[in-house]
Amino acid sequence: MLYLGDENMGSTKYITSMGELSRKDNSLCFRKNGKNIYIPIENTKEIYCLNEISLNSKLLDFLGRNNIIVHFFNYYGGYSGSFYPKNQYNSGKLLVKQVEKYKNNRIDIAKAIVKGIGANIDEVLYHYYKHGKSEVRDCIDWIREELYELVDKAESEKELLAYEGEIWMKFYSMFQYFINEDFVLNKRVKRPPDNPINALISFGNTLLYTKTISAIYRTHLDQRISFLHEPSEGRFSLSLDISEVFKPIIVYKTIFDLVNNKRIKVAKHFEKSLNYCILNEEGRQIFIEAFENRIETTFLHTKLNRKISYRTAIKLDCYKLIKNILEDKEFIPFSLKNSY
I need a surface site. Which of 122, 261, 267, 325 has the fewest CB within 10 A? Predict the structure, then answer.
């Protein structure tokens, strides 16, 4: 299936079936079982290949000239890699400064990210607390009364990563109080996911990670130089840093909405085996549409005094980081509560 989505999805196209992607005149053509589906090149910025796709260098040259990024996923919905057009946004000056910031002031940015994760989880849980789920108060109180002090006192990125892990574990332990009982989370399992809730989390996190890769690509930042997560081969670690604070808002709110409103069902929307559990094609389509609607949701940005989408908020966090690197302006990640 070629899933183009509705008008709100605009610049992102998803391919969820096996087939061949090629150039046809000034359009893209997806061919499956002898049938052609044409994709207009105008306004296309990203293509997500969620199944085995055949393509050639002629197509890649065409995509590159039109600044279209292609993200590839494996059978389990995990991220395999991306095709990047020749990067026209490179900045030698910023690269040097980004390396200097990593060497000299990494921990301050890392602390801001961990605090940002905590603040947005607090806000998501507080919604359920206000609606009668008093059990989540323990996690909210821990974030407000202990986490920020622990982060301030931390002396290494390793300590901060431990606190980040603790935040997520406490958050997961709250799911039992407000999520449909069919989606119980006993423990977080990633590669591959082993039950429906882990499948949703892994797929959602991967979509957000690749959205962040695309956002960073359109700035002058270097994807490889990160601050909370260790820079390493085989992944864009800065995308992990930037995406973390948006997970509670975009990924988890999407999951809670789909599960609690029974739009995603255990019996209908998953493939299960002895060692893994993944969304089936119908389940992926439902999740993708909800995810795209969430990331394109607009809100009033309190500093800009205009409406922006969460997709734009991700890019604005990239620019905040650039301001920190070049001008030493304090980096404060996006806050759901403050709307900036």
Answer: 267
What's residue 233's pLDDT?
Answer: 65
Exposure class string for 45-54: b at 16+ Cβ within 10 A, else e: ebbbbbbebe
Q: For residue 147, is pLDDT > 60?
A: yes
The pLDDT value recorded for residue 5 is: 44
Binding site residues, as ranges?
Answer: 164, 229, 244
Q: How many CA atoms lie within 13 A of 250 on its CB side?
A: 33
Burial label for 63, CB within 10 Å (0-12, 13-18, 19+), is: buried
Place of tokens 């990024």: 69
Please report, in range form, the residues annotated as the binding site for Mn(2+): 164, 229, 244
Mean pLDDT of the chain: 90
Which CATH superfamily hosts domain 2-83? CRISPR-associated endonuclease Cas1, N-terminal domain (3.100.10.20)
Q: Is residue 107 classed as helix, strand or coil in its secondary structure?
A: helix
CATH architecture, domain defined by 92-327:
Up-down Bundle (1.20)
**Model confidence, pTM:** 0.92
